[in-house]
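Tutorial handout. Part one gives the primary structure; part two gives the three-dimensional structure as tokens.
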Amino acid sequence: MAFKVVHYINQFYAGIGGEEKADYMPEVREAVVGPGMALKAALKGEAEIVATIICGDSYFASNMDEATKTILDMIRKYQPDAFIAGPAFNAGRYGTACGAMCAAVAKEFNIPVISGMYPENPGVEMYKKFAWIIQTPDSAAGMRKAVPAMAALALKLLKGEAVGKPEAEGYIERGIRKNMFYEKLAAERCVDMFIKKLKGEEFETEYKMPVFDRVDPQPAVKDLAHATIALVTSGGICPKGNPDHIEASSASKFGEYDITGVQDLTSETHCTAHGGYDATYADQDADRVLPVDVMRDLEREGVIGKLHNKFYATVGNGTSVANAKKFGAEIVKRLVADGVTAVILTST
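Part two.
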């Protein structure tokens, strides 16, 4: 008899809609939906998807406790042998929902839980200790690679087979230590690795150290009354129509926009290109994300010297760290060249 699997996806992958349907309440379908078709094929008949749970990303994020309880009640009926969520790739809210449900299901039913995410997805850091998370590319273009790996790991866990190292199985390191027995003592293994390093030979560390990207804070601005302050945002604010075609997700560019004489950002002049949050309020009044109106008030009151006549914007949704660093370096060059004193960074 095949193992029973419950699959969790968001409203987008269920074909219900995009951001405009992100408040979609939890629904259960006794059917294979969206990426579940590929998952079904990858499970090769050894496991079957008995139900698909669908929930909008915004609904889950805004009602996490209630949504979790509702979904757990939906799952209980099917008494599954495993729970698979996603893959979420680099979609932050989706990844967080997948991770949260995996953690809740593991605690409630004590069954294997598997998801798939890009390493930079915030759901990874939050839930990697509670779920097996297959490393995926940053977008759905990697679906063909992600789903078979998720299915293979799920089947191993269901059969009680030993799971190998992350690089062999394709999952993201979980930060869980296990006792191992070796022929050589730790000191001998350490010396062997050190010698290989000195010789320039390849070696594999037994414990990878975390790498932290630290940025030292700059000194406080001593004289705000004579300072030039610039606005920079990852919230996607741009002139109406998005003239630079900044992507709604995984941005490959940023925009530079002139606000000389502009006192207020209105729905007639500005909007957001961001695809990772409900754009309704930002499109109604872009000052909610990029506070030009408040900065003009401070300028008139003499609190600051002046607001820089240009602002810079990109979309943070799914944008890689490498691109973000590249954007930041280029924006800084332009701001320094223009004599800007300080920057206010706004997000969503």
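Part three, for discussion. The longest helix spans residues 92-109. The longest strand covers residues 47-55.
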